[in-house]
Each structure stands twice: as C-alpha cells, then as structure tokens.
C-alpha cells in the first residue's frame, strides 16, 4: 500500500550481495516447540474432560482474574515467570511458545509456498496499540479500583478449576480469532502483523525486553549482506541494528535465532550485552520503546536536530492525516467489536479493529488513485478497477456495513445499560426513575430487534428493566430467552423469584427442580423447601 515512489523498508531480494539466503535450520526446532505447545494444551483440556477438574488455564490473560478478583492462578504465575525470564534472556516467549505466533508463521509459510510474501505495512500510531492494550489488561483494573477508592482484593490461591473453559470463547469464536489474528492479518499487514499491531502480551514483553541483556550480537566477520534481515520474520532490520550498535536492540526481536543460523559469515550469535546501548557521537539510536515513541515527532523536527540519523529513519506508508484517521478508525472499530453480542473477545476485537482501520485508508486510496496495488494484487490500473479491485470493494463494503451495524447495536445496548444504572440513582424519585427506565427499555428493545444474533446480555438487562418497572410477565419472558441462549444458576434463581411474584408456584417449582438436576446447591434446596412449605407439601 506504499506510494509507488517510496518502497517499503525491506532489503531487496533481487540482488543479494552474498547469494541467496539459505534456509534456517532453527525454524524446524521452533516449529517443533510450537507444535509441542499445542500438544500440551490438548492434553490439558483432555485431563479436564476426563477428571472434571484440572489446573487453571496456562494463559497470560488469566492474570486479569488475579488483578480484578485476587485469584492467583496458573496463568498469572506463567506470566510472572515469563516476564522474569524475558528480563534475563530477552523476548523469547513470543517466538518459541505463543500459539498465535504459530498460526502467523504457518500463514506466512503457506503464502511463501504460493509465491507470496506480504510486505509489512509501517504505521506510526498503530504500533502503539500493543502498549495501550497491555495497559488496559494488566494495569487499568488496579488504576480503576484506586480511582474508585476501593481496596485491592485479598490474594488467594486458585490453581485448580472445574470450569476450565469459563473465560474462553466458544469453538466458533475461537476459530474466527485464529483466522483473523493468525492468518488474515498476516496477509494484509505482513509477517507477525498481529504481534506488531495488536498483541497486548507482545507490548508487555517488548517493554521488559528493553532492560534485558540477552541480545543478538555481531563480530567483525559481518559484511552487511542483509541475509539476516531477509530471513527475519519479525520485520527487524538486523543488518542495520548490528552495524549501528553491535547488537539487535529492536524490541520486536523475538529471539527466533533464524538470523544467527543463516549468516554466511557466522557473524551473529546470541549473547549478553549492555541492555542500554551507548549512543555514539554520531547520534545513532536504536529502535527502542523511546525511539518508537519518537516517530510521533514530525520528521522535519527530528532531522533538524539529528535526533534520528538518515540511515535509521524508517519509511512509513501513511501520511500524518492518514495516521490520525487510522487511530480514530481503530477506536471506532474497538467500540463496535468489543464484546459484541457478548461473544467477541478482546484479542479478536483488536485484530478486527486494526484491519478496519487499514481497509478504510486502502479503500480511500483505491477510489482516489489512478493506479493502486495492495500487497501483490493490482486493484486499479489506468483509472479502471481490475477484477481483484471490484472483488476487494465488494468484500470491504460488506465489512464496513457490518461494522456500522455492529456499532449501531453496541450503542443502543450500552446506552440502555447506562440508563438502567442511572435509574438506581432516583430511588426516591419514582417518576424520574420510571422515565429513565422506559428510555433504557426503548434503547435495549432496538438492540434486541436489530441485532444479527441473539444477545443474552441484552435480554437479561431487559428483564431487569421490566422487573424494576413492575412488568413481571415481560421480565419473565426476557429472562427465559436469556436462559435458553446462556443458562446460568443466577438467571434461573431470578426466574423462580419472578414466577413467585406472579403467583406461579408450580412454574417456580419446575425451574428450581431443573436447576437442582444440573447443580446441587444449598441455596436451591433452601428455596425449594420454602416453596414446598408454601404449597402445603
């Protein structure tokens, strides 16, 4: 998507100075390690299915439960141990143990077999997304609690669980997440596209990596052939890094060691160096976190002060107004996709939002320019759309319309929920409370009618609104629909209460008996006993 006169900053593959790079033998070991990770995951799930109880998920996102609820689980311990190891040897977890990286590498390998090598797109603002996402996941819960004046939860051990899949999406959404974050984003944005523009764990590891002494080092054998850069799947300009600093300081380096293996002069090795490279008198600067942030400064200001020397200045694919539009479009996409219908997880929302932002700029250029190429496809030539261009417009058009519809549904859902919460402030003003509840009911009704899929969250909120309005029959109907789509003990207990409030004793009894068949809880038995005594049994 770069301008025809401004090539992307990738070393030319046409005339390598030292011949064609040889295949990396380390890639086979890394592929075996990533396959082993999936075997262990399958074994973990199988153990839960067989025994009914197992170790809590070994997933870094589980650390959010520790921060929000105080549950010290296996995911939190894994994240802590991995961060400590990253501090020692560098950012290795992403390259050797991350399942999303495995899918991205698989996609890149398949595309390479098909003769395609997507070029990495370069954006100043989108590359800050992983850091913002990491802050939202791992810092914001504590910050929000502090701002609300709440105390931190007491930490308790929670290493075993019977509800292994409770925090994970269903199979359909899981597959969609893999396809979007592991495959589609690589084809559109280049190798490791999700790592660069979406992964919150990558943002966390990148920050810790800056203080790590574990680096890719170089000796005097280096001739600057560029094989290392051509082989790197993390879009690191290895040959420039080692020429300027004697080591790789780019926080995107995942220690895959492919560059070490393919070097024809055996000039590269993994070792330990100064975690904060000394800047030479010429003003050399590496691609550290601070350097990444420095791209927010206009280029003319940096050139005038020699802040970034010409050899290390990156070429970006978007003008500044396009960068700002990308940021706004990404935030709009995050609003539209985050928890859509109670199904879309955060990582999928990040990937879809990045794709939305890039696709909008690509669509604008496609309509405005006489000739336009995206990756390996010519979408417009001589002022006319090619077949690929027409197909791209149709696909993008459906995606944009779907996004707008999702934003419409999300707005009415969230505003309806906000009206419900606002109504609780008017407990001593019945008329005002009713007006707010009626407004919320209207908004949620729009979301329910126009939603593409059933949303148990909307139906459950409608049930609460109807109950607060005294419309128990409508509340019962909404709650039954919510239970049909997403059963839960809490909803079933509330349904039994609604039946009792309407004098439907037998129906309340049926609800409690069905619930007791699924889960033998003391609260259910207590309610059933009270109900039977009330019925004279």
How would you describe this structure to a colleague?
The protein has 537 residues and is mostly helical. The protein folds into three domains: 8-154 and 172-315, no CATH class; 320-404, no CATH class; 407-534, Serine Threonine Protein Phosphatase 5, Tetratricopeptide repeat, CATH 1.25.40. It has helices spanning 26-51, 63-69, 74-89, 93-97, 99-113, 129-138, 140-147, 171-189, 193-197, 200-209, 227-231, 238-245, 258-262, 289-294, 299-304, 320-337, 346-368, 387-423, 430-450, 456-468, 472-485, 489-501, 505-518, 522-534, and strands spanning 54-55, 71-72, 156-157, 160-161, 214-218, 268-272, 372-374, 377-381, 384-385. The strands form four sheets. The chain has a three-stranded antiparallel beta sheet. The chain has a two-stranded antiparallel ribbon with strand order 1-4. Strands 2-3 form a two-stranded parallel ribbon. β8 (377-381) and β9 (384-385) form a beta hairpin. α19 (430-450) runs antiparallel to α20 (456-468) and α23 (505-518) runs antiparallel to α24. Mean pLDDT is 86; it is low at 2-16 and 277-311.
List the helices and strands and how they pair.
Blueprint: H1 26-51, E1 54-55, H2 63-69, E2 71-72, H3 74-89, H4 93-97, H5 99-113, H6 129-138, H7 140-147, E3 156-157, E4 160-161, H8 171-189, H9 193-197, H10 200-209, E5 214-218, H11 227-231, H12 238-245, H13 258-262, E6 268-272, H14 289-294, H15 299-304, H16 320-337, H17 346-368, E7 372-374, E8 377-381, E9 384-385, H18 387-423, H19 430-450, H20 456-468, H21 472-485, H22 489-501, H23 505-518, H24 522-534
Parallel strand pairs: 2-3
Antiparallel strand pairs: 1-4, 5-6, 7-8, 8-9
């Amino acid at each position: 998507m770069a301008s025809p006169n401004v090539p992307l900053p990738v070393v030319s593959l046409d005339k390598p100075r030292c011949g064609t790079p040889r295949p990396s033998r380390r890639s086979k070991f890394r592929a075996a390690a990533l396959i082993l990770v999936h075997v262990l995951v399958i074994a973990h799930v199988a153990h839960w299915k067989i025994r009914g109880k197992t170790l809590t998920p070994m997933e870094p996102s589980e650390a959010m439960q520790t921060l929000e609820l105080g549950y010290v689980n296996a995911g939190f311990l894994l994240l802590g141990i991995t961060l400590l190891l990253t501090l020692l040897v560098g950012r290795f977890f992403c390259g050797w143990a991350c399942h999303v990286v495995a899918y991205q590498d698989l996609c890149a390998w398949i595309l390479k077999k098909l003769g395609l090598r997507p070029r990495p797109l370069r954006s100043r603002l989108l590359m800050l997304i992983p850091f913002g996402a990491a802050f939202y996941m791992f810092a914001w819960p504590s910050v929000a609690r502090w701002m609300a004046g709440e105390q931190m939860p007491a930490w308790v051990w929670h290493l075993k669980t019977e509800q292994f899949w409770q925090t994970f999406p269903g199979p359909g959404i899981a597959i969609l997440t893999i396809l979007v974050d592991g495959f589609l984003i690589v084809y559109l944005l280049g190798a490791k596209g999700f790592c660069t523009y979406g992964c919150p764990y990558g943002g966390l590891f990148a920050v810790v990596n800056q203080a790590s002494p574990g680096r890719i080092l170089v000796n005097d054998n280096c001739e600057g052939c560029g094989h290392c850069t051509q082989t790197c799947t993390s879009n690191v300009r290895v040959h420039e890094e080692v020429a300027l600093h004697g080591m790789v300081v780019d926080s995107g380096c995942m220690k895959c060691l492919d560059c070490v293996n393919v070097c024809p002069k055996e000039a590269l090795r993994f070792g330990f160096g100064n975690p904060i490279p000394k800047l030479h008198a010429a003003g050399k600067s590496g691609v550290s976190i601070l350097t990444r942030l420095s791209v927010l400064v206009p280029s003319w200001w940096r050139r005038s002060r020699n802040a970034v020397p010409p050899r290390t200045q990156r070429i970006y694919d978007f003008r500044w107004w396009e960068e700002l539009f990308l940021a706004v479009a990404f935030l709009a996409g995050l609003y539209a996709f985050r928890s859509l219908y109670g199904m879309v997880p955060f990582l999928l929302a990040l990937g879809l939002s990045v794709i939305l932002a890039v696709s909008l700029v690509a669509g604008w250029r496609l309509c405005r320019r006489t000739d336009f190429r995206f990756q390996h496809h010519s979408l417009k030539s001589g002022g006319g759309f090619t077949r690929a261009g027409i197909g791209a417009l149709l696909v993008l058009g459906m995606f944009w319309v779907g996004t707008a519809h999702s934003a419409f549904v999300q707005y009415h859902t969230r505003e309806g929920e906000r009206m419900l919460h606002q109504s609780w402030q008017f407990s001593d003003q019945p008329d005002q409370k009713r007006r707010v509840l009626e407004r919320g009911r209207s908004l949620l009704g729009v979301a329910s009618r126009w939603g593409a899929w059933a949303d148990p969250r909307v139906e459950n909120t409608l049930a609460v609104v109807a109950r607060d309005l005294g419309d128990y029959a409508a509340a019962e109907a909404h709650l039954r629909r919510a239970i049909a789509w997403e059963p839960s003990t809490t909803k079933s207990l509330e349904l039994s209460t609604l039946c009792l409030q309407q004098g439907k004793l037998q129906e309340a009894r049926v609800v409690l008996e069905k619930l007791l068949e699924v889960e033998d809880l003391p609260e259910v038995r207590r309610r059933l006993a009270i109900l039977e005594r009330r019925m004279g049994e």
